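Notebook entry, structure prediction.
Reason for the run: the old model in the group folder had no record of what sequence produced it. Starting over properly, with the input documented here first.
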Amino acid sequence: MDVELTVNGATHRLTDLPDDIPLLWVLRDSLGLVGTKYGCGGGYCGACTVHVDDQPVRSCSLPAAALTGRKITTIEGLATDDELHPLQAAWIAQDVPQCGYCQAGQIMNAAALLANNPSPSSDQIESAMAGNLCRCGCYVRIKSAIAQAAEQLAYDATAEEVLS
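New structure, fully documented this time:
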C-alpha cells in the first residue's frame, strides 16, 4: 500500500506498507518519530495517543491507510519554534513523570482537552484523562500540570487581548 500522510506539518509519501499497518508503527518505524509509545496494542492505555485533525486518537489501533488527507500531530509536533507547549512546560515544572513512558500520550490527550475546554474544572480534567493509564501513579501531578497549563493559557489569552 502507498499512503501520503501529513505529520507535524510535513507531508510524507510512504510506499510498500502493509495494508493494515497501524499509524503507530508508521510513525515510529517509517518516520522515526519515537515519542509516541506502544503500550497495550488495543487502544486501552493511551500511551500511543496522537491528534488526527486536532482530536486525540489511539494510533496503535488506527490504520494508517485511513489517514490520507488528514492532519496528524505527534508529541514531537506539539511545541512550536523551539518553544514548549504550555503543557510540556507545566510537566517539567510539576516534575510529572516518574518513568515517563506514558507521558507523551498523557500530554497529547491533555492538549486536546485544553484546546476544547481551556478552563476545565478538576472533575473535567479527571474525566478527560481517565482513559490514559500511568503505571507509576503520577495522576496527582498530571492533574496539577494540566491545571497549571490551563492557567498559563488563560493568562496568555488575557495578555494578548490587552496588547491588541
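Summary: The mean pLDDT is 95.
The old model has been moved to the deprecated folder.
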